């Protein structure tokens, strides 16, 4: 009888996950209880992670073309969602998902030139860096 | 800037399959990325993939992978520039050779044409003589007869054979000329091809191969480059420039340079 794990998001929503899917996460694997609270991860994101796990649990062969296409679709999300997904997957230590997501970030960065990278990723705050640098030089 | 922890960004840079250009682009976006993208493991990987044939540097621990990469990159680039220059020179001398040949053909053409004209004149003179001698066999008014006798007497050479020879000569001249004209056309075509090749060899809108020297020289060259690049698309300048440090030119980069912050590696 496969166990059912309960994953709770930061906004108190619970997801039930079958053992096979749940054990893709190292965090869950090494956890002693079947009820895991995932802090800082909202339901929307957690739901997606669960979806990925389910998909990958049911199909053994990850080299399958269909799975690859599904994965490609899965990671083509908006940057904000992408980063949140990475954080969640990282917390749950789902190596393959993290790899896929970081690969996607890498691809997105490569596809852009510097200027558009600055515009797309507002976290790259060059202006502020410059200001700081100037200040430290006494200007 | 703390959306993702350093470790995950490291993962991104490792997994992403970044080229040296990508890493450099990333390294000038902000200090954090500069730090993360400068890491040795990334550059060692690039070193082994891009310059596998180069013998490993007698490892001195003060040399970072990135600086080593830069060194090899510049050496390689300089080699390529030198080779390109040589190719250009070869092409140019080829063109000069074509031009010389063309001039040669032109002068021979002129000679032959001149000869042909002279032969034609001669020929027509001899025709006159022959006409005159034939006419003498027929009765004509005395004045005309007199003139004709004069013409015939003036001619000291046996008419018929000379005529024949002249006609041969004329034919030969014409043959020569048409041969030369063809040769000229061919040579002209070769010249055209060579010139086109030279043009395409020279065409490279953004390549700038001034050797990178450190410090201020770099700054002024960068600001000049900035002015030149302003009108052009960033994608273009990022991926076509071979300058290792200057991969794209936002105004912000100028800030860094002009205040003496350099990316010295």
What this model shows, in words?
The complex is a heterodimer of chains A (139) and B (265). Chain A has 139 residues and is mainly α. In chain A, 60% of the residues lie in helices and 9% in strands. In chain A, α3 packs across α5 (79-92) and α5 (79-92) runs antiparallel to α6 (95-110). Chain A starts with a strand and ends with a helix. Mean pLDDT of chain B is 75; it is low at 208-265. Classes of the chains: A mainly alpha (139), B mainly alpha (265). Chains A and B meet through α5, α6, α7 and α8 of A and α1, α2, α9 and α10 of B.
Give a nutshell description of this structure:
The complex is a heterodimer of chains A (139) and B (265). Chain A is 60% helix and 9% strand.
How would you write the strand order of the largest sheet of chain A? 2-1-3
- Percentage of helical residues of chain A? 55-70%
Low-confidence stretches of chain A: none
Helix content of chain B: over 70%
Global mean pLDDT of chain B: 75
What's the order of the H and E elements of chain B? HHHHHHHHHH
What is the general shape of chain B?
rod-shaped
> Structural class, from helix and strand content of chain A?
mainly alpha
Strand tally of chain A is: 3
The N- to C-terminal Cα distance of chain B equals 24 Å
Helix count of chain B, per DSSP? 10
> Counting H and I runs of at least 4 residues, what is the number of helices of chain A?
8
Structural class given helices, strands, pairing of chain B?
mainly alpha
The major β-sheet of chain B equals: none
C-alpha Rg of chain A (nearest Å) = 19 Å
Q: From N to C, what is the helix and strand string of chain A?
A: EEHHEHHHHHH
Portion of residues in beta strands of chain A equals: 5-15%
Shape of chain A: globular
Strand content of chain B: under 5%
Please provide the count of β strands of chain B. 0
């Amino acid at each position: 009888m496969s166990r059912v794990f309960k994953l709770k998001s930061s906004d108190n929503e619970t997801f039930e996950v079958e053992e096979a899917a749940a054990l893709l996460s190292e965090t869950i694997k090494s956890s002693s209880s079947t009820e895991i609270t995932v802090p800082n991860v909202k339901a929307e994101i957690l739901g997606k992670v669960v979806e990925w796990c389910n998909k990958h649990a049911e199909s053994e062969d990850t080299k399958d073309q269909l799975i690859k296409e599904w994965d490609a679709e899965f990671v083509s999300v908006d940057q904000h969602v992408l980063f949140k997904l990475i954080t969640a997957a990282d917390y749950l230590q789902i190596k393959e998902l993290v790899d896929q997501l970081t690969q996607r970030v890498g691809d997105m960065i490569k596809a852009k030139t510097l200027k558009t990278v600055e515009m797309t990723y507002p976290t790259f705050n060059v202006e502020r860096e410059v200001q700081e640098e100037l200040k430290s030089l006494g200007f | 800037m703390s959306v993702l922890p350093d470790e995950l960004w490291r993962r991104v840079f490792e997994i992403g399959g970044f080229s040296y250009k990508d890493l450099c682009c990333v390294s000038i976006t902000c200090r954090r990325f500069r730090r993360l993208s400068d890491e040795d493991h990334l550059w060692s990987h690039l070193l082994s993939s891009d310059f596998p044939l180069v013998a490993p540097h007698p490892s001195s621990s003060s040399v970072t992978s990135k600086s080593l990469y830069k060194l090899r990159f510049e050496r390689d680039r300089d080699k390529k520039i030198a080779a390109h220059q040589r190719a250009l020179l070869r092409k140019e001398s080829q063109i000069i050779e074509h031009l010389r040949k063309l001039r040669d053909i032109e002068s021979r053409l002129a000679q032959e044409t001149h000869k042909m004209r002279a032969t034609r004149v001669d020929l027509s003179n001899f025709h006159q003589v022959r006409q005159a001698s034939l006419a003498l066999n027929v009765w004509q008014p005395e004045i005309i007869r007199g003139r004709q006798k004069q013409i015939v007497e003036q001619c000291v050479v046996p008419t018929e054979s000379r005529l024949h020879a002249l006609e041969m000569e004329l034919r030969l001249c014409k043959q020569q000329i048409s041969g030369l004209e063809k040769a000229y056309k061919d040579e002209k075509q070769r010249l055209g091809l060579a010139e086109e090749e030279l043009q395409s060899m020279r065409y490279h809108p953004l390549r700038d191969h001034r050797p990178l020297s450190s410090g201020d020289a770099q700054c002024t060259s960068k600001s000049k480059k900035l002015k030149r690049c302003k009108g052009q698309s960033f994608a273009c300048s990022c991926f076509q420039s071979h300058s290792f440090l200057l991969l794209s030119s936002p105004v912000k980069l100028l800030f860094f340079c002009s205040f003496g912050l350099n990316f010295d590696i």
